[in-house]
Amino acid sequence: QICLSLVKLLFYLAHSPLGSIVLLDFQPRQFVMVDGNLKVTDMDDASTEELSCKEDNDCTLDFPTKSFPLKCSLGGKCEGINEKKNLFNAYRYFFTYLLPHSAPPALRPLLSDILNATGDLQYGINETLRAFEKVLHLYKSGLYLQKRPLLLKDYISLKGFRTVEGEDYKCWPSYSHLGCLLSIHSAEEAAAICNSHSQCQSFIVTQQRTWTGRPLALFQSSWTDLIPDTNTVIYIKRSASSGERL
Length: 246
Prior knowledge:
Residues 1-19 form the signal peptide. The protein is an alpha+beta fold. It has helices at 2-14, 81-98, 108-119, 125-141, 187-196, 238-241; strands at residues 22-23, 31-34, 37-40, 46-47, 60-62, 67-69, 155-163, 180-183, 202-209, 215-220, 226-237.
């Protein structure tokens, strides 16, 4: 969410009515999240000036660890230097820390492609935004789940019940520090996640939703102490419930 919101912001800056705007003091502390959108807190160091040049050799974009040769336009300006500077700063301050860690495994190669392409400035801001929107579409639609074995048949569902709240096993990247609370597309995906956790014996699809509209599921190491709750469904592994009375 943070990276996509940043890319949308940089897309606007690259195509603003004033021209391409560069953020000269590009640091994470210069941004805040407001209602799920990233905002710049300080525009004092923003500029629409693009570096003047006489030849391509005048247009090297330098960073502490990398340098990028750019073209000198017929108008005597380094082509796209503001846009590319913003994009590489987004890569080194945001993408490298946030993109690799929290996506479903099937989407990680696509995010890795974005990471590599922006890190080498192979993508401009237009291509980067399109790549992010493609990943978002796959994520929201559940298309990344195609050709998976059906695992929900291995679970018994009980509507109108949940377990007593309390601390349980933890997982990454959980929405709760008390247990394992993850975003899912469907109960079928939740069953696959539960099967991949050695501790998991049951899960509950909650009424909570993420910013993309996906429900949150709570994964648990037991399923005892059930209490009535008309808004939830608990799914219990058949292997865990064998020999028990439901």
